[in-house]
Amino acid sequence: MIFTAPWGLLALLGIPAIIAIHMFRRKFPPRPVAGLFLWQTLRQTPEGGGKITKLPITASLILECLAALALALILAGARLEPASVNEHLVVLLDDSASMSATNARNESPRDRAVRRIEDEIERLGRGVRVTLVLSGDRPAVLLGPAALAIEARPALARWKPEAQHHSLALGLRLARELASKTGRLIVFSDAPPDVRGASAIEGVRWLSMGERLQNIGITSAQRTLTPSEGRGTLSLALGNFSGEAAKRQLRLVANQDGGKEILVRDLDVPPGTSSLNLPVPAGLPAVTASLSNDALARDNDVTLVEPRPQIVAVENRLPEGRARDALARALSSIAGTTRAEQGQLSFGPAAALDQPAQPGVWRVGFGRAPARLLTPGDPQDFIGPFVPEKRHPLLQGVTLAGVVWSGALPIASKNVRPIVSSGDHPLIAMLGTKPDDGVLFNVDLDKTNLVRAPDWPILVSNLVELRRQNLPGPERWNYRVGEWVRARLATDPKGQLHYKCGTLDRPLPHGRTMEFIAPPNCALLQIMEGNETLFELGVNFLDESETNLSDRDTSETGKLDSQAAGTRTETGPESDPLFWTLLVVGGLAMLGNWCWLGAARSGA
Amino acid sequence: MPAPSTPPIDWQEVHAVAGAFRLAMPRTPIGGRLGERLGAGTGSSLEFQDYRQYAAGDDLRHVDWSAYARSEVLTVRLYREEVAPRIDLALDVSRSMRVNEKKALSYGAMAGLLACACGSTEADARVLTASAIEPRPFGRPEEIESFLACEAANSILEEGHIAFRRRSLRVVISDFLFPHDPDVLVGRLARDGSSLAILQITLPEEAEPVAEGGRRLLDVEGRGELDLVIDEKAVQEYRERFSRLRQGLARAARRAGGGFSHVIAGTPLRDVARALVAAGILESA
Question: Alpha-carbon distance B182 to B176, whole Å?
């Protein structure tokens, strides 16, 4: 006999308590009387007493002790047998979309995997415990841990692989943790482990259920708009992984007006990757390009929203000279900018940074900093080493190699937030915590070779893009599944922000900026404020690794862990006959005691 | 030792004692068919009782013509009436009457004595034991034994209706150890009756208990149990309560014109008979 809750044995203390009660209660010898009522108004003696008499072994005492014993054993979880040990099958399911690719028999690796899992469960018996883990960048438990075998079938029916290409390593790590030393781990994928990059598969049975299939899919898509010409272009990259040219039909449908067909074209798709440009009328909010069906349906469609370019108005206030020309040259090479008198991004002398800024204007100052920032000392030239704040977006792609930084005046670091320094001299710095507080270039543009260095247009471009990112609107209009979607609002939202994507409806944090991962299973994503649609974005699969089914194969690698101990499972008390025995004994003892006491009272 | 449900009766002793006594008849008129027992009023027996002046309607056969010849006054002879009295003997057959053998034996002997006394009066005697049981007549005194199975949970006296007959002689034997109001109870027993005799029989320890320490008191009629230390104080309180009960019964019986006697179980039967005579319940034969 084992006890699943040994602390319940403390209830056995009830037995000595019962015995003590009987010892103290039964000390008066009985005396039958004819007129008890004549005694009843007299002072009654407490039932307890100080004198312990010999314990009377009565039926009541025996029944009460029996009931207490039975109930204590029930509380202690008494079992005749220890907890049952069941096989624990941990299954890692490759959740990538290629698992859904169907062959000529309309059968996918997913279908074969499900069938194999069900066979495995059947082989191990109905008592087997099952844990199903979905692979992915964020692995998830589909079933379990250690769920009943009967729950596996409905869970597998819910499994629809459609994730983008990912490593199985994270999923494998989670599955190993769940399997621990008790479970046997099987991986179901459509490719052998070497292809998936999982090297350490010791103790893992890797079943590749894939099949080499000829598949053509859209691997990249872009929609552009030329406002000046009033037309748009849809650029598609088609991946043909069949090894030979193939014919496909492409349909282009506008999503508005109930799906108006714009174009139908038969294509000869050569092996490898090919590109295709299609004209799209300007003004169509979203269009869907569809290839005729083949092995993998997931990569046959893309939905693209017409981008609305975000133009950054730039103001060049630098004095005439070498510096102004250099800035003008750099700006001319950056798309999506325009010159304005009151720009959103203003380049000028650094001394002007001390003046109040117009709302919405980011100022970039070059040369001598405002006097309040300077400390005594002469201007210095620096050839390095330069210490950049590497993760700052302004410095992306900037190396400052070969740059002679000339004319840098001494500035106290506590007054600014350095982005690039040399020693304790800030060279590029922000005047506050945000770029809109002002950016200071502590450099004499007339002397430095920075304006001739490759880093100069990059720095200017980064400044423009940083400003562009902070303009109201989405960062981009079309995304891949799993990419970060970022958008900004011009004003604080008044209603609840949320996004809808197919049947998915998720709330967003309240604020001007929003950031979330593009969800799968939808084509059009709407960012909404209450019932009002703020932005409509395209979300597409676009994964060349999943489109390429030429390396898929069927194989079995590795062996199950024969040392797996199985999982100890606690079943409910109803499964143990001892529980019912104790329950019946306890119940009968209580009932018998009640009847006995009743009979004793009536017979007294 | 538990007493048998039907108390055994030593009939030899009972007959030896009962031969000298009979049930006392009341002075007030009693009902009943014509019989051999002289009634209190005038009647048509052969036993002369008195004279009185003739009144219209008197039976001319009773006119004393000799007296008329001497005094020229019409005088009629009055004779004692002859009646057969109705006797209702109410017996308490609850379990308290056999709480032990001593009480059961005394109860049986006293019931036998009363049965003999009733039999000696040529009366129309019936025994009442419970309201649910039809009162049954008995002829020979020994038949009383069949009524004394003391198994009931309640006494007939506690029941709402007692089937006494009008103008009957009522003899009640019980320990009266149940909660009651003596005035109310005796009033019920005496209502429309000719006479009432109340006999209370108790054990010595029921009448005068002594301190005996802690006891679990178990009511033999199932009215509960009580753990009690029977000390001097408890005994004194009990005696006072029992005395009030007994005196209440005696007083109420007196008010109803009946007799009351308290008999301690174990008292010799002859002494019991004398006590009943003293209480006016029995008379010498």
Answer: 9
DSSP A508: -
Q: CA-CA distance, B83 to B40, in Å (whole number)?
A: 9
Q: Please give the mean pLDDT across all residues of chain A.
A: 84
Strands A231-240 and A272-281: antiparallel
Using a 10 angstrom Cβ sphere, with 0-12 exposed, 13-18 middle and 19 or more buried, the burial of residue A86 is buried
Distance CA B31, CA B88 (A): 12
Residue A304's identity, in one-letter code, is: L
Decide: helix, strand or coil at residue A64. helix
Judged by CB atoms closer than 8 Å, whether chains meet at A35 and B226 is answered as: no
Average pLDDT value for residue range B79-99: 81
What average pLDDT does range B204-229 have in this prediction?
Answer: 86
pTM summary value: 0.50
Residues of chain B contacting A37 with CB distance shorter than 8 Å: 178-179, 223
Contact: A41, B179; criterion CB under 8 Å: no
Query: Taking CB atoms and an 8 Å limit, are B175 and A35 in contact across chains?
Result: yes
Yes or no, beta carbons of A33 and B241 under 8 Å apart: no
In this structure, how many other beta carbons lie within 10 angstroms of the beta carbon of residue A580?
A: 12
A363: β partners: A346
Cis before residue A145, ω within 30 degrees of 0? yes
Cβ <8 Å between A35 and B177? yes
pLDDT tens across A96-122, in order?
Answer: 888 988 888 889 999 999 999 999 888
CB A85 within 8 A of CB A567: yes
CA A320/CA A326 separation, integer angstroms: 10
Backbone angles phi, psi at B29, to 5 degrees: -60, 145
Q: What is the tens place of the pLDDT at every residue in B139-173? A: 788 888 888 888 888 888 888 888 888 888 899 99
Mutate to test the interface with B, among A24, A27, A40, A42 (most CBs of B within 10 A): A42
Find chain A residues with C-beta within 8 A of B227's C-beta. Answer: 28, 44-45, 47
Residue matched to tokens 């009693």: B30
Phi, then psi, of A396 in degrees rounded to 5: -65, 120
- Of the candidates A31, A35, A42, the beta carbon closest to that of B234 is on A42
Tell me which residue in B202, B203, B226 faces A39 most closely, judged by beta carbons.
Answer: B226
Of A27, A34, A45, the CB nearest to B220: A34
Q: ipTM for the complex?
A: 0.80
B222 and A603: CB-CB below 8 Å? yes
User: If we measure between CA atoms, which residue out of A95, A137, A98 comes closest to residue A241?
Assistant: A98
CA-atom Rg of chain B in angstroms: 23
pLDDT score of A428 more than 50? yes
Report the SS3 class of residue A405: strand
Q: Which of B135, B141, B93 is nearest to B117 (CA)?
A: B141
Q: What are phi and psi of A58, to 5 degrees?
A: -110, 165
Distance CA B146, CA B139 (A): 12
Amino acid at B232: E
- Token pair for A11: 């209830």
Contacts of A595 (CB under 8 A, 6+ apart): none
Containing A152, the helix (H) or strand (E) segment is: helix A152-158
Question: Does the pLDDT of residue A128 top 60, yes or no?
Answer: yes
Percent of chain A with pLDDT over 70: 90
If we measure between CA atoms, which residue out of A478, A455, A312, A437 comes closest to residue A386?
A: A455
Does residue A414 contact residue A324 with C-beta atoms inside 8 Å?
no
A209 burial (CB, 10 Å; 0-12 / 13-18 / 19+) is buried
**Considering only CB atoms, which chain B residues are within 8 Å of A33?**
99, 206, 217-220
Distance from CA of B206 to the nearest CA of A (A): 8
Residues of B with CB under 8 A from a CB of A: 96-97, 99-100, 103, 175, 177-179, 202-203, 206, 214-229, 233-234, 237-238, 241-242, 245
